[in-house]
Specification:
Helix content is 8%, strand content 36%. By secondary structure, it is mainly beta. The chain has a domain of 77 residues: OB fold (Dihydrolipoamide Acetyltransferase, E2P) (Beta Barrel).
Length: 145
């Protein structure tokens, strides 16, 4: 709502006539007698919440990178790969995504066995990329599908 319209609504809601006088302060309430016992507290049941690691992930578990709240996963098709510069471009459901991949990125086959680094990924491969968002999407693991 725009400010002018809000002022008109507030003005229309006010009763006609002069503004009400300031209300008189409420009388002080005497404290309860000292002999009164406080009410018994109701029993409290504490139920521990499950650990974050035990909650189901919205994607398959990675093989080599630790699961953290910041971990993300995309499934896509490789459009370009430059292992020397650590660049992986994939088409995902979100569109074309460029991942930065350092020399420690692990590439795994369908069974989860490590097959090397980014140089093992070829254009046209179906991959699942596990990454975190820092200054861009930073890949930690690439699983060949």
């Amino acid at each position: 709502m725009q400010p002018l319209a809000l002022a008109l609504v507030l003005a229309a809601a006010a009763p006609p006539g002069p503004p009400p006088a300031a209300a008189a302060p409420a009388p002080a309430v005497a404290p309860a007698p000292a002999a009164t016992k406080p009410a018994a507290a109701a029993p409290v049941t504490v139920v521990p919440l499950p650990a974050a690691a035990s909650l189901p992930l919205p994607f398959p578990s990675p093989h080599t990178v630790p699961v953290t709240p910041d971990l993300r996963s995309d499934l896509g098709t490789v459009q370009a790969v430059d292992a020397a510069h650590g660049i992986l471009r994939c088409t995902t459901t979100a569109g074309l995504v460029t991942y930065r991949a350092g020399p420690t990125v692990r590439v795994s086959d369908r069974d989860g066995k490590p097959v090397g680094g980014l140089e093992r990924v070829a254009v046209g491969n179906a991959v699942r990329v596990f990454y975190v968002v820092g200054q861009g999407a930073i890949a930690g693991e690439v699983d060949l599908q």
